[in-house]
Write a structure and sequence with these properties.
Layout (H helix, E strand, L loop, with lengths): L15 E4 L3 H8 L4 E4 L5 H6 L5 E2 L3 H6 L8 E4 L13 H6 L2 H35 L3 E4 L2 H11 L2 H6 L5 H16 L2
Parallel strand pairs: 1-2, 1-3, 4-5
Length: 184
């Protein structure tokens, strides 16, 4: 979401983009020549209004409801990252349940997973339409720019998460990669 159009990768150069306060977020925008500026979510709209940053990298679904379209009239969909979700169940708790209730919990979890997968892409389209209704122009990168963007950010997971100082982060990253590979 930006205050000026980002139609091609080169348009990112020199921009200051709000990101989460993580190395990977800063590196993602750095691959296209922008500078990642960590700002708390509640301060993003005022930061854009005051021209502290030129835009923000965040979930367009969340941003649409948080009034971002009032200060950013340009939305560039890059599809470079997704917010993974998971269903977590305590194994100890689950094993204490009678077999019939355990089956209900496990089956319901699988149904919710399928439902979320089926509906998430459609929900993004609904939010893009909402951005348009609020006066935003929506851009998508050309196939060549999209491929270059993905090629630039692809190694970041292994470079940052795969070598993270926290073993738990490294282990979770391996699990996420395995799950992604299994479901592709």
């Amino acid at each position: 979401m930006t205050t000026s159009p980002i139609k091609v990768l080169a348009d990112f150069k020199g921009k200051k983009i709000r990101v989460l306060a993580t190395q990977i977020e800063r590196e993602i925008v750095g691959t296209v020549g922008a500078t990642g500026v960590p700002i708390p979510f509640t301060e993003v709209v005022p930061a854009i209004q005051r021209k502290v940053v030129d835009g923000a990298r965040t979930s367009l679904v969340v941003a649409a409801k948080a009034k971002f379209p009032t200060v950013t009239k340009h939305l560039t969909v890059t599809n470079g990252a997704y917010i993974p979700t998971g269903t977590w169940i305590s194994k100890v708790w689950l094993e204490k349940l009678p077999a019939n209730l355990r089956k209900i919990v496990v089956d319901t979890s699988a149904e919710i997973e399928d439902w979320a997968s089926e509906h998430s892409a459609g929900f993004v389209d609904v939010m893009i339409d909402e951005w348009k209704k609020q006066g935003a122009t929506v851009y998508r990168l050309s196939d060549a720019d999209q491929a270059a963007y993905m090629k630039g950010i692809a190694p970041l997971g292994d470079q940052i998460l795969g070598t993270h100082k926290n073993a738990g982060v490294r282990d979770m990253y391996k699990l996420l990669k395995a799950a992604a590979k299994k479901n592709m």
